[in-house]
Amino acid sequence: MTAPVRIVFLGGLGEIGRNCFCLEVEGRLLVVDCGLMFPTEDMPGVDLVLPDLRWILDRADDLEAVILTHGHEDHIGGVAFLLKELYAPVPIYGTDLTLGLLANKLDEAGVSDRAELRVFADGDRVQVGPFDFETIAVTHSTPHAVGLAFRTPQGVIVHTGDFKLDQTPVDGRLTDLPRFGTLGAEGVRLLLSDSTNAEHREFTRSESLVGEWLADLFHRHEEKRIICACFASHLHRVQQICDAAVESGRRIAFLGRSMQSNTRLAREKGLLDVAADDIVDISEIAKLDPRDVCVLCTGAQGEPLAALSLMASGEHKWVTVGEQDAVIISATAIPGNEMNVHRAIDGLIRAGAEVVHAGVADVHVSGHAGAPELELMLALVRPEFFVPVHGEYRHLVVHSRLATRLGIPDDSILVAEDGDVLEIGDDGVDFADTEAPAGYVYVDGAGVGDVTGGVLRERRRLADDGTLVCVVCVDSRTGEVVSGPEIMSKGFLRAEEEEKFIEEAIEHVIASIDAAAEEDALDLTTLNRHVRQALSRFARKRTERRPIVFPLVVEV
After folding, report:
1. pTM for the predicted model, two decimal places
2. How far apart are alpha carbons 409 and 414 in whole angstroms?
3. Quick check: is 234 catalytic?
């Protein structure tokens, strides 16, 4: 009987982002990707969201290596946080570009000494501990993405990574369909495949089309300064924006820390073809005719501190947006970021700029395969078992139905979620009896994991209903109230309502304290509880709202 192989999903199933899973062979662990997710509107004060890495950290002695499929934040953004918690250096495998993008993040986090960066190329076969894996070229919206084929005691496991079947990619690097087909012919036990665009009924359009659309937009706005925003890691898009700018006689100013560092890295590695003479420092653009300038910046997701959002709010140091500007947002909003993007667009339009975005023009194509491409991958690989990965839950379900349509039996398709553990054994693939911790870990400033679900609920209540603070001073010897109650309101009432409410609330609290004192002596803890309950009940009765009440009983 052959020992089972396990896959533990820690993120990326049921959401966009936090992609991370572990492969376990012979008691050893291999982490595949470790990404982050951007906070949604209902996560006030949260900067980033990470996978729960406790399952890995509890078995740190068993960890062989980390493999990265590509350089997007939702696949590499959590690596530095993982390394901070490990006590020994870890081998990290990836393509030269992916590891270059990661190295910048590790330097910023001060954990470069905890990683052993090991470069692989397309088609490499790598052995690390009991793991034997092969890299397969796939086309995505960042260069040099790969799929993976693991040869395990329980057969071959193929993971597509994020991919699309672009037949005219900007860099000419195609998804290696022949290799996927060969693996399928040899026999694949389990396929894990990207589900992000499973609901899209057509082939995803080629990235090279964006270059044509951009060239037309640059021509149509030749009398204006052009500001383009896109993902800093989307270097194919960056290349096409630069091509359109140079062709129209403009010089390019890179703006935003990640945009500057990523373009510098890409130029060093020969992945971004822009002559030094075509680049101008952002501090110099005021000296040039606006018609001769293209600002290429971060902020396509409306991030509050990114360059585009600062322009939209009129707070950017170097760029003041006005009627002389055409702003092209060459991206679509990540789910949860829609309001931030809309807010940035409104601010730019209010400042007088013309804004071109995916809602009004062709300025973006996805990096993920649509349904016909997913069906083609399933048909080539012909897996015995199938698990859709990477996407919200509805994407996973739609992808599973595509597999059913192609003849994979329903009992060979498993729709997994974060925390699920799959066991691949002699008798097949099924869910294990155990689950791994897989909740959200919130990054708030320098704190990682300090913000819990309870803290977020309190923050939402503060945002929704405001606060009431009630100060009462009592005699330390007799326990009698000698001053107060004094009530202060924040974010709860309009100014014209506040005075009357506070007068009535004070009377209600005093009456409640007197009634409680007649029954028993009041210590500080009991008095605090009575003040909170009395003020909460009064506020709810008067306003049908539930502000957070902070009683402050002080002995004098």
Report:
1. 0.82
2. 10
3. no
Question: CB–CB of 272/170 below 8 Å?
Answer: no
Query: Which of 28, 22, 19 minimizes the C-alpha distance to 78?
Result: 19
Q: CB-based contacts of 67: which residues, under 8 Å, 6+ apart? A: 30, 31, 32, 33, 92, 93, 94, 133, 148
For 106, which DSSP code?
H
Residues 307, 311, 314, 319, Cα dihedral to 10°: 90
Q: Are strands 145-152 and 131-138 parallel, antiparallel or unpaired?
A: antiparallel
CB contact at 8 A, 142 and 234: yes
Query: How far is 528 from 365, CA to CA, in rounded Å?
Result: 58
The packing angle between helices 235-247 and 257-268, to 10°, is 90
- DSSP lists the bridge partners of residue 324 as none
Asked, as a colleague might, if the bond just before 383 is cis with ω within 30 of 0, I would say no
Residue 28 DSSP label: E
Residues 483, 202: Cα–Cα separation, whole Å: 72
Tokens of 342: 């809309």
368 flagged as catalytic: yes
Task: Using DSSP, state whether 9 is helix, strand or coil.
Answer: strand
Name all domains of the chain by residue range, CATH numbers in brackets: 5-40+48-202+366-440 (3.60.15.10), 208-356 (3.40.50.10710), 453-555 (3.10.20.580)
Q: How far is CA 409 from the centre of its chain?
A: 33
| 111 contacts: CB under 8 Å, gap ≥ 6 | 80, 83, 84
The torsion of the CA quartet 159, 124, 369, 379, rounded to 10 degrees, works out to -70
Which one-letter DSSP state was computed for residue 216?
H
Of 159, 316, 364, 368, catalytic: 368
Rounded Cα distance between 240 and 298, Å, is: 16
3-state secondary structure of 146: strand
Please, are residues 129 and 64 in contact by the beta-carbon 8 Å criterion? Answer: yes
pLDDT at 234: 92
Which helix (H) or strand (E) is 215 found in, with range? helix 208-220
* Catalytic choice (33, 194, 325, 420): 194
Q: Provide the residue type at 172 as one letter.
A: G
Rg of the chain over Cα atoms, rounded to whole angstroms, equals: 28
Q: For residue 306, what pLDDT is reported? A: 82
Rounded Cα gap, residues 319 and 287, in angstroms? 12
Q: Is 521 left (phi over 0), alpha (psi -120 to 50) or beta?
A: beta
Q: What is the pLDDT of residue 414?
A: 97
- Residue whose structure tokens are 């002389």: 324
pLDDT along the chain (556 residues), means of 10: 92 93 96 87 68 93 97 94 91 97 91 94 96 98 96 97 96 96 97 97 95 94 94 93 96 93 94 94 92 91 79 89 93 78 90 90 93 98 97 96 96 96 95 90 61 57 69 66 71 67 73 64 65 77 73 67
Alpha-carbon gap, residue 469 to 485, rounded angstroms: 10
CA dihedral for 166, 168, 169, 173, sign (positive or negative)? positive
